[in-house]
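To start, one record:
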Amino acid sequence: MRSLVDILEYHRRTKHRPDAYAKGPASIDWEAQPDPFRRYDGCDIVALPLEGMQAPSTWASLWQDSGDRSLTTVRDVGCLLELSLALSAWKQYGGSSWSLRVNPSSGNLHPTECYVLASGVDGLVDGVYHYRADLHALELRCCFTSVNSDSPSLALGFTSVHWREAWKYGERAFRYCQHDVGHALASVSYAAATLGVNAADIRPLMITDDELAALTGIDRAEDYPEGAEAEHPDCLITLSGGKSGSLTGSDWLSLAQQGSWKGIANVLDRRHFYEWDVIEEAAQATRILERPAPDHPEYCETPAIISQGIRATDKAAQIIYQRRSAQAFDQSAGAISQQTFFTLLDHTLARRHCPPWNALPSVNGINLFVFVHKVDGLKPGLYALIRDAESSEFQNRMREQFVWESVDGAPEHLGLYCLLNAGTQRTAANISCQQAIAGDSAFSLGMLADMRGLEAEPYQYRQLFWQAGAIGQTLYLDAEAEGLRGTGIGCYYDDFMHDLLGLSAEDYQVLYHFTVGVPLTDHRITTWRPYQERR
């Protein structure tokens, strides 16, 4: 039970309060930001093609029948990564420039690293590769010396460099790293769907943290010289899971253990002015020590609402590439339509053959509480979207004033309820650390997680955050398709939200906030296409 105590204590101590934010650095030197790109010096580098934007799928088509394509070539790998984890733009303001990526990240700090496992993939030597987003290239970390299958197999392993987030956010950074794993998993799933990959091919592979560390090579102390920041194992997904002869987690591990490794990790930040020991304690408390049993999720069986947004017939690749986080919203903008609102919420429901849920080890346990500000035909107020009926026991603990009325005009399967009618803009902004973006939008929401399963499986703490991150990426992309824009909000007053809902126990905790509206554009910032030297 020590792990449960440790992770609940971590969650408790990293809550924000108006008079006491979670511990973080007293000051930040923006000129000394950690290197956003890990590299392994001494590795062979394979440049990946930049052809992902040629994928013909429209955004609306992703919510219809799954494709039947397999990923079997280096071109396929390049397209997948280009549409999921690559750079999407360079920005410049004054003398400063910075990159953006296809996948969102808290503070644009990108702690998530990706390792490509390839066997029988045309154009790639069988082995373990590290993805270099700055180059859109693969570094060959491990060359397999034996092969277990004649069929092409492809998998992705994810790890986190906690320091990248801790540099700015201090102790709360462990939460944000988990959000970003969810963002990345969802991004890969959407990219695969855009390329027409069969949804059944994508699924998690259940292995322990130690096994994943060995598989990705992040446990090789000799490859991480003094000062090189550690990476922590997150998860492994297969992209060939529906195929006969596809390699299992054990197969991949065996190949990696017998393989030939090379490459030395770079140092990302030579000046660690602060140390946040509680992050490592949280990582230890949530380790996967034994292979988890396969989850048996509850899926929504009602077909997804097909997006009819202003950009729904655009190429999905374009929607993915143009995703941005809104920095401010247009307060003068009118209300969004009910159809738009219902579509955005509908796509957060877990469905077996729709992205991004096939990439996640857990899809249940989070429900949404929505501050409706400006939606046609809906009175402003607090609403609830019950994504997971089995985890909704909290209804009996909430405020007696909540009316739990079904919303007229909402699809029956949506599980959308009005709790109370009232102006919500100021409340939403106040709860989100007084951030105007939570109140100036069309709506914002909090993601409430069922924490009761942590007693038996503390690692579910991480998986709940991954699920929250995946919901966030879904809202990001659907907002773009509707001509809107979203922003994930990691800074909020945890217990203010719980108090608003009438929840006092720790069985249910809010893990992520999100907001959607009509964005304002800062025209002072110049945007450049990435990888210009290769086009």
The longest strand covers residues 508-517. The chain has two domains: 2-25+36-285, 316-517. The radius of gyration is 22 Å.
